[in-house]
């Protein structure tokens, strides 16, 4: 393995690390490493049981002394590789851990923009947003464009970060104290990793910020096939949404929104069942339903929708605003 730079020892709480999952990226990885600026103290390239032996390739061809190659004996996916880097960077005393891909899609020159909000105490986690500049979206393939729009809405609901966009963006940065508190054994390790991580961060009430970036696509080949993950993603989003609502509004706290949601479901379910039963009964006899059996379920359904909208309004406004990494750092001492 190549040696790690000692500069982190002198920078202390400002030490920055980069984690690069390295799976079938031998064509681009050296260029990615070369583009990482001097503000970074350590670079962890994670060979995730790569059939191209990317780890050995890096060791044999890289000349940057900051680089250290880590190996996963079994392929764990991009999430598993990233968390391998998280663990090592935290153990080495890094303060902020940036994750970029090794395929050249992510511009290393943007790295200071991802790190600054964390070092300034404004955020616990930052992520890229390729939809910030609408004039640049045309560079993104059409299928990815529509896929990201749909996934973004689902991710907003399941994670609770309604103001974020582009949830599958893998250009991210996290405070090491927050990374250490993540339930890494429970986080999805493959393509759902970034979105599942947002759900876990919301459970910690971590502050997350979007960072504007342009979409960059070259000759790289994406391993993500929308048709293969659509059903899986939908189920996982539904699971995370139910968990988030239960944790946030019933296990950890009880607010007016908790009562609004109960009222919404009770009225919607009651109105639908009552109205549906009487509609079926009236259709079977051929007689018109009494005015009361029509008006009562209609009022219940409309009232239920109003309660549901009130709950959603509360949920959208209820965003974490105070970074948690300072208190977590105190727990580590």
Write a structural description.
It is a single chain. The protein has 333 residues and is of the alpha/beta class. The protein folds into two domains: 7-225, Spore Coat Polysaccharide Biosynthesis Protein SpsA, Chain A; 254-317. The protein has helices at 7-11, 29-34, 54-61, 77-91, 111-119, 142-159, 176-181, 193-203, 226-251, 256-285, 291-317, 325-332; strands spanning 16-22, 42-48, 67-72, 96-99, 125-129, 172-175, 208-212. It has a seven-stranded mixed beta sheet with strand order 3-2-1-4-6-5-7, with helices on both faces. Helix 6 runs parallel beside helix 9, helix 8 packs parallel to helix 9 (226-251) and helix 10 packs antiparallel against helix 11. Mean pLDDT is 87; it is low at 1-5.
Top keywords for this entry?
333 residues; alpha/beta; 12 helices; Spore Coat Polysaccharide Biosynthesis Protein SpsA, Chain A; 7-stranded mixed β-sheet
How do the strands and helices of this protein lay out in sequence?
Elements: H1 7-11, E1 16-22, H2 29-34, E2 42-48, H3 54-61, E3 67-72, H4 77-91, E4 96-99, H5 111-119, E5 125-129, H6 142-159, E6 172-175, H7 176-181, H8 193-203, E7 208-212, H9 226-251, H10 256-285, H11 291-317, H12 325-332
Parallel strand pairs: 1-2, 1-4, 2-3, 5-7
Antiparallel strand pairs: 4-6, 5-6
Helix pairs in contact: 6-9, 8-9, 10-11
